Amino acid sequence: MKHFGPELFKLTDRKNRMFALGPTHEEVVTDLARSELKSYRQLPQCLYQILTKFRDEIRPRFGVMRAREFVMKDAYSFHTSEESLDETYRRMAEAYRRILDRCGLENAMVEADAGKIGGDVNHEFVVFADEGESEIFRCACGYTADSERAESLGRDLEAREPVRPAPERVHTPGRKSVEDVSAFLGVHASQLVKTLLYKSNGKAVAALIPGDRTLNETKLAKILGDPFIEPLCEEEILRLTGGEVGFSGPVGLPAGTTIIADRLLDGQEGMIVGANETDAHLRGVKMGRDFSVSESEPISRAEAGDLCPRCSGGALRSQRGVELGHIFKLNKKYSESMNATYLDQSGSEKHFMMGCYGFGISRAVAAAIEQHNDDRGIIWPKSITPFQVLIVPLNLSDSHIVETAESIYAEFVSEGISALFDDRDLRPGYKFKDAELLGIPVRVTLGERNLKQGKIELFYRIEDRTELIERSELTRIVKEYYS
Prior knowledge:
alpha+beta; Rossmann fold; BirA Bifunctional Protein, domain 2; five-stranded mixed beta sheet
């Protein structure tokens, strides 16, 4: 419960007993495997389920994109070796890519952060959409990672702060932000170093990043081995450093403070940092001479235009997307902690190697809409449209139109074509507008003038085109369109 954090959906019954709604099921399925899988002869095994899950999201939003209750397919695999796990992991990744391709969704498999589930090797399956929550960084060399995992080699510095024989104290009255300090001193923001103060396991931690960068708290938490790091409040900062918020720096921090510097600072010559004194900063500071760091790690967020960490020469570009799938190599994280074992060929007990694989079914609907739409409404891909055809009779007082519409509907049903019949007695303009909003790929329009000539109008929402066809050709043409 503590490990999953506040997203765990908790409730109490009338007897004041606490319960939790399932956010994920690694422990439950591991317990099942521990009970049922006894021998190497039963492995590998992959157990799956499709069910409703619950997470107490801080900000539920975007309909079913980020909901407290959602439908998910997940699977858990159990193996005797890393090689067996690798094979299932590869096959599951290929299956997820095929699913998204068949759904007509532009997607990518990206390196990702494991979050609360765990597993150093894990990948997300992201559907690109301008309104998506996830930010993805990509390089022409093939490197692709989400913002929580992405690393970079940074960019060439626009200006450098020179090293001085000793740190020079400068008066910076009321200048707390990087923007204010750099403007006051007439320097570029990259010459400053932000000192961000946190507490982890009861100890103070100072995270140092370039002034023009943003801290990646996920990476910092992973380095510290503490998923529940918290920033210090104003009173705690004043007590620790002697200065107000905005004037913290690494020089002269109390003994016992862990200092973690972003790897991009390794190439810095001099630095401008807070003086740990209200209204003061230090110029010309040198890392290693004026202060020592506990670790140098990549803790700042990658940015568009940064050099790629894989090929070193390409520039990263940013795209937004919606995470639909996530796969993990759990290895022995759960089997060891829960002592889930099997007997190998020699009769010895061994812990399972494990993988887990999740796919957001309900979120796929929102992702498809986000990626496929225009200013008139949804444009459903043919493979996942809720209906294949929308039948729109224009005049319900005309018996010939109504009879033809009903015969077409019956014909579609008998041929296995899913159809929606708009039998509302509304003006044609309202019906057309709603039809485009719904986004069903094929609209069959029945009007008096065309029917007198034995013609039917077909409108194709994806291609945005209209054609007149013979009534007798309707079913054949629709079938060919979906073949």
